[in-house]
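Give me structure tokens for this 162-residue protein.
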Amino acid sequence: MNLILLSPVHTIRELAGQRAQLKEHPFANRNMSSGSYLRLMCLAGIEVVCTVPLGSFIIYLNTSNGIQPWVSWSNIHYDFSYVDQIPFVVWHQDQPMVTGIELTRYLTVFCAFVFFVFFGFADEARRNYRIVYISFAKKIGLLTGTDSSRTWTGTGFVVLLV
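Here you go.
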């Protein structure tokens, strides 16, 4: 139990030590800036803090109806391609099953948003968004803010870019 609680603290201490080493040797990895390293370590810290309780809860849900004994691999893989279909009315009466299904449904989307918040607003990502925008704007004939003119007269109408 203490090992589980000390793991996030240990991760944060390692983060501080690694960050100091990264500042000492900035030439060691030119692709990794201090900000991207910090974002990566924060994401790893959030992952550790969130997955330990979530994993424990999922183990609890899986064992709440009892543990099936292991017999053999042929028993485990018997009728392995069968997909059980349970109507909504039936599985919705079992609260642990509802919790497990809803968690797997929404936590994946939430984790994707958290990942995007950490890396989607970084300087490098915004530079890449701008490159894609300029490329797309040139293909459709839209003048970007870097152009000398601020209007577009592509198909008979004028759009003033502010």
